[in-house]
């Protein structure tokens, strides 16, 4: 990506600029060299001092076209990855600006020497990729696109971030729905669906799981079937495999919670549910880690119980606070080793 953009920027730096409004505006060229008009398309322009080969495009021009297409493709792929995550539905402008900073850093470092607006070039290429992928209307200019995203970011800050109650799940959900309504009002229903459809689905998936868990009218089997139907619908409508944008283990843990709605499962059953969504190796590692955490929690609980009992014994024996503190340093070390908490 970096090499492609540097080559493209270098081409732009060498492309002819519009002549100033002065008396002598005719370019000075060698005899026999043709000069295209200033309003000719970029691929028809070249360095006026370079030799021409009839109507065939120069090799440098072909290279510039290739580099531009490659750069736009790479930025487009980065956009698709970003737009598939839930946080894109909340602060799209901030996320795309961060993408530009990461992807265009090499161009920025060379831009000053090349006298080219590298940041502007990257924004142009990214917008071109987004416009192509979303089939945006010609009425949506680059400037308008970034303006809309800025307004969406500001609405999120105002309606969600600035509300301290959104630290609670239910309050965040209500604020998020209010924000979505405001967002649709900013960008329009059609563009909202194209820009944020998948990100919204990813962000709302845990909410839907909670709704299923608290639905008293459905059995565990019905809850799991509804969950699987939701996953299939999202994939069908977006054309994206959810496991490629959401951690498969997260999808598996949602399924496990729904399956255990009727009661806890045995180790083999839990492994089977997790393996179905995340694969057998991931399921095995997750369950092993869970068991290790549970064992450590139990050892820590036993450690605290014994430590409290020893402190009480020392107090009954008449030791003062400072004496107890001195004795407990040695006792704590023995307890750490006993319960393997080091």
From TrEMBL:
Q: Which UniProt keywords apply?
A: Cell inner membrane, Cell membrane, Chaperone, Lipid degradation, Lipid metabolism, Membrane, Signal, Transmembrane, Transmembrane helix
- Residues annotated as signal peptide: 1-21
Q: InterPro entries recorded for this chain?
A: Lipase_chaperone (IPR004961)
Q: Name one GO cellular component term.
A: plasma membrane
Similarity comment:
Belongs to the lipase chaperone family.
The record ties this protein, via SUPFAM superfamilies, to: Lipase chaperone-like
Its taxonomic path starts at: Bacteria, Pseudomonadati, Myxococcota, Myxococcia, Myxococcales
Give the subcellular location.
Cell inner membrane
Region feature (Disordered): 28-57
What is an annotated GO biological process for this record, any one?
A: protein folding
Domain of life of the native organism: Bacteria
A molecular function (GO) term: unfolded protein binding
Q: Where mainly found?
A: membrane
Record-given protein name: Lipase helper protein
Q: How does it sit in the membrane?
A: Single-pass membrane protein
């Amino acid at each position: 990506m970096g090499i492609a953009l540097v080559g493209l920027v270098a081409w732009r730096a060498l492309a002819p600029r519009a002549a100033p409004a002065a008396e002598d505006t005719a370019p000075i060229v060698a005899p026999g060299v043709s000069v295209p008009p200033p309003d000719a398309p970029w691929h028809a322009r070249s360095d006026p001092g370079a030799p021409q080969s009839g109507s065939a495009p120069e090799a440098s021009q072909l290279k510039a076209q290739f580099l531009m297409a490659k750069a736009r493709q790479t930025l487009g792929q980065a956009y698709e990855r970003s737009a598939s995550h839930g946080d894109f539905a909340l602060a799209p402008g901030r996320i795309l600006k961060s993408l530009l900073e990461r992807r265009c850093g090499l161009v920025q470092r060379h831009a000053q020497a090349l006298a080219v607006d590298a940041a502007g070039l990257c924004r142009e290429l990214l917008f071109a990729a987004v416009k192509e992928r979303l089939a945006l209307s010609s009425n949506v200019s680059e400037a308008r696109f970034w303006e809309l995203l800025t307004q969406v970011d500001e609405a999120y800050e105002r309606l969600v971030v600035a509300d301290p109650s959104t630290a609670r799940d239910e309050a965040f959900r209500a604020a998020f729905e209010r924000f979505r309504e405001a967002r649709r009002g900013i960008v329009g229903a059609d563009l909202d669906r194209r820009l944020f459809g998948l990100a919204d689905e990813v962000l709302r998936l845990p909410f839907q799981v909670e709704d299923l868990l608290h639905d008293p009218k459905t059995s565990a089997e019905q809850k799991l079937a509804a969950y699987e139907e939701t996953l299939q619908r999202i994939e069908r409508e977006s054309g994206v495999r959810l496991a490629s944008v959401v951690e498969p283990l997260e999808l598996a843990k949602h399924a496990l919670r729904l399956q255990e709605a009727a009661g806890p499962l045995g180790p083999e059953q839990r492994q089977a549910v997790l393996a179905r969504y995340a694969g057998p190796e991931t399921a095995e590692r997750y369950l092993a880690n869970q068991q290790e955490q549970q064992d450590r929690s139990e050892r820590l609980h036993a450690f605290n119980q014994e430590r409290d009992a020893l402190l009480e014994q020392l107090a009954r024996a008449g030791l003062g606070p400072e004496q107890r503190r001195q004795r407990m340093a040695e006792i704590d070390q023995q307890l750490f080793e006993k319960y393997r908490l080091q």
